[in-house]
Inverse folding.
RNA sequence: GUGGCUGUAGCUCAGUUGGCAGAGCACCGGGUUGUGGUCCCGGGUGUCGAGGGUUCAAAUCCCUUCAGUCACCCCA
């Protein structure tokens, strides 16, 4: 029998890491609900044509197929695992528009799948935590300013490095490109997005080669991309470039509002960064990317944007804005750098020692009494010597060992302090009740 | 999907021109007939990632494959 091996890109964390993940997800979920987002879970699969509706990245979609699929099965009816939570949500809104009240605020925390080549913080199966707001026909702009605040609140209470959310607005780029006469705005966006990686010279070359820009146009696009600021001053820098376009003006006004809204609540959280592009299609307004301070080189852990055409039937339109926290990605990076620790590897707060097997029923009663008051408790596996029972607790980080006797005593094995205790009333200090997650 | 690097004990790693698989820490047992950590004694716990090839002989050389990681691609 060969020992089973891991599958590339499908990480399985150990209980301490999973405990941390649950803690993080709880924090995120509670925050989302604090802002009034309603819970939603969509099925894992979507019709393949739905998934591929936008973009030609079909390579990365996992397709679902029965082992005994019929020979003549057509591709039309095949199913794919969802690769994000926005596309399934858009489908859900269209499907259930009649039952929903708009604007509709929902959160979704689910696994998604992408057939990418894995590396640290980048997996084929991973967890995302997503919020979106959609409305019918038109979506008020102010929701675009709200997204970063929710994310900052959710992540701000966690023992992780501070985040910085980079924002841009598609209208700024597209208006600007139109203003200077660049023919292929999408190609231009794609080129400009690489600025940090390949530098201004290569971006200028790309702009000429792929976006059909002249040298002067490339220079202008590059000048725009190099602008960034944590306050509204970026708008002056853009206007100083002397490009005139109504869409540009609209985008600038929106981006200023996003930045100023954030600065009022959380100064330094948001930075306007005009090279941020995100995916090629479907974003139409504000776009977000998020860096963990100190982990900038690992890319964005949270991203999203405004979309106007994702959910539409032709007659009805449901514009939306959303942002998604890459939970697995963020935790994978932090775990990889030993930047998160937990005080114990199991939930157990108290181990009830067992003097002899004849005493086990009494020990079980003690455990039940503690559990009934919310103290996570387990009973020692065997009536081994007390030294071994204490070691059992120590190896797992369990802080307390309960010794049956006349009277019962409980020992804090970290300090060695042992006191008389009654299982009907004893309570550990609040900080010992659950494992504590902390930064390294 | 393309290319590079890495893979030896639970962890960190050593292993010479191919010649009996090692160290530290961790862990297990005992000293300790019942309260751990210090100390002493004892124990190597391994499919050298896997499969195949070359060879008298492979952790070592060759091929394939799996996994991790890095750079691309992509990031909906």
């Amino acid at each position: 029998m060969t020992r089973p091996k891991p599958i590339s890109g499908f990480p399985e964390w150990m209980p301490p890491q999973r405990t941390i993940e649950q803690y993080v997800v709880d924090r995120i979920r509670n925050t989302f609900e604090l802002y009034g987002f309603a819970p939603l879970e969509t099925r894992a699969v979507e019709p393949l044509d739905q998934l591929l509706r936008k973009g030609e990245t079909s390579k990365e979609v996992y397709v679902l197929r029965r082992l005994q699929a019929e020979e003549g099965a057509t591709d039309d009816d095949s199913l794919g695992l969802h690769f994000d939570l926005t596309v399934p949500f858009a489908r859900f809104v269209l499907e259930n528009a009649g039952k929903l009240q708009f604007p509709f605020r929902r959160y979704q925390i689910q696994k998604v799948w992408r057939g990418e080549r894995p590396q640290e913080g980048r997996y084929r199966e991973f967890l995302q935590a997503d919020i979106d707001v959609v409305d019918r026909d038109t979506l008020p702009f102010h929701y675009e300013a709200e997204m970063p605040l929710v994310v900052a609140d959710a992540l701000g209470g966690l023992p992780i490095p501070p985040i910085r959310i980079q924002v841009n607005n598609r209208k700024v780029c597209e208006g600007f490109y139109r203003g200077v006469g660049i023919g292929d705005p999408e190609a231009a966006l794609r080129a400009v997005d690489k600025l940090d990686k390949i530098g201004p010279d290569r971006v200028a070359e790309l702009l000429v080669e792929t976006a059909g820009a002249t040298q002067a146009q490339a220079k202008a696009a590059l000048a725009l991309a190099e602008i960034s600021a944590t306050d509204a001053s970026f708008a002056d820098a853009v206007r100083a470039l002397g490009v005139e376009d109504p869409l540009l003006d609209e985008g600038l006004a929106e981006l200023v509002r996003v930045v100023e809204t954030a600065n009022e609540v959380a100064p330094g959280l948001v930075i306007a960064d005009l090279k941020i592009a995100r995916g090629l299609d479907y974003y139409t307004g504000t776009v977000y990317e998020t860096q963990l301070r100190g982990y900038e080189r690992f890319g964005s852990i949270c991203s999203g944007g405004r979309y106007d055409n994702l959910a539409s039937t032709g007659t009805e339109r449901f514009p939306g804005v959303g942002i998604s926290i890459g939970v697995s990605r963020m935790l994978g990076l932090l775990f990889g750098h030993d930047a998160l620790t937990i005080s114990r590897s199991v939930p157990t707060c108290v181990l009830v020692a067992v003097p002899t097997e004849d005493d086990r029923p009494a020990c079980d009663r003690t455990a039940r009494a503690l559990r009934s008051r919310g103290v996570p408790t387990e009973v020692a596996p065997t009536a081994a010597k007390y030294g071994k029972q204490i070691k059992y607790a120590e190896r797992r980080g369990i802080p307390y060992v309960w010794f049956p006797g006349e009277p019962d005593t409980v020992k804090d094995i970290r300090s060695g302090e042992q006191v008389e205790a009654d299982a009907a009333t004893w309570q550990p200090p609040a900080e010992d009740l659950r494992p504590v997650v902390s930064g390294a």
Observations:
- The CA atoms of residues 221 and 356 of chain A lie 79 Å apart.
